[in-house]
Design a protein that fits this description.
23% strand; alpha/beta; globular; binds benzoic acid
Length: 266
């Protein structure tokens, strides 16, 4: 591992966050599993009829729709206009909003977030906004990338870029905290943590690793001119093949999730 990237370069990454482009069709094709694997969060959330729930980083709304189907009134927010448009096309109340600058005030019974918090490089701002958005006693149920998430993939991207004389450190776009570090942030924002754990979860991919890289690792790929990206992707894939591709040609990604339930004082 060329260093711990889990919290590196927060300011640079924040500046680049806007350059991550979400294409709803590509996301559904290469990352449809994200919402499916978020199903355990619904069991933890137990959304009830009449409750008001905020889905933080709702993407194209697959999980948001399940919360709505449980009878809760759900609002989804996401920074991507394309993903919000896709969620609205499902008939959901979805809004373009920066999760680091939430404006809700004591109006939600619960906040759910799946596979989004690791894109938010100012966790303190996010958690204080979430605390302000919740009613007293409200709960936050979430899953994000945790310490060590996609470490093998990150190492291969680093090695391929370094071989081209490019310093990849500034391209790292994520925040993958350890449980204790995130628990401290939750407590500082006024939450009592009911559970928090790292869950290693090798995740089968629906296709080639290249589709995953194009969907999630844009900030690394953009370090080379567009014409060189297919070669870079092929090279990263070859570096990863021995570890992440089985003998049947099935790819997986070395996910490590951080899952937690936290509650505001009543
Ligand atoms: C995700 O947003 O689902 C994700 C991002 C980076 C690594 C793994 C997953």
């Amino acid at each position: 591992m060329p260093g711990d990237h889990s919290t590196s370069d927060p300011d640079g990454a924040r500046a680049r966050q806007a350059t991550q482009h979400w294409d709803p069709d590509r996301y559904t094709k290469n990352a449809g599993f994200v919402a499916e694997l978020g199903a355990p969060l619904l069991d933890l959330l137990q959304p009830a009829k009449g409750e008001r729930v905020l889905d933080l980083g709702c993407g194209e709304g697959a999980l948001t729709a399940k919360i709505a189907a449980a009878g809760a009134a759900v609002v989804g927010i996401d920074s991507s206009p394309e993903q919000v448009a896709a969620a609205r096309a499902r008939g959901l109340d979805a809004r373009v909003m920066n999760a680091e600058a939430l404006t809700f005030e004591a109006e939600f019974d619960a906040v759910l977030s799946n596979a989004a918090l690791h894109w938010m490089r100012n966790p303190d701002a996010v958690l204080h906004g979430v605390a302000a958005a919740l009613k007293p006693g409200g709960r936050l149920v979430a899953e994000m990338g945790g310490q060590g998430n996609v470490e093998t993939i990150v190492n291969a991207l680093f090695a391929a870029l370094e071989a081209r004389g490019i310093d990849p450190r500034g391209a790292f776009p994520w925040y993958f905290p350890a449980p204790q570090a995130y628990q401290s942030k939750l407590e500082a924002a006024g939450f009592a943590v009911e559970s928090i754990a790292l869950i290693p979860r090798p995740t089968p991919l629906p296709g080639e690793i290249g589709g995953w890289l194009e969907t999630f690792a844009e900030s690394f790929l953009k370090q080379v001119p567009a014409g060189e990206r297919p070669v870079l992707i092929a090279e990263v894939a070859e570096r990863l093949r021995p570890t992440l591709c089985d003998s049947q040609g099935r790819w997986s990604a070395d996910y490590v999730r951080l899952r937690f339930v936290a509650r505001l004082a009543g």
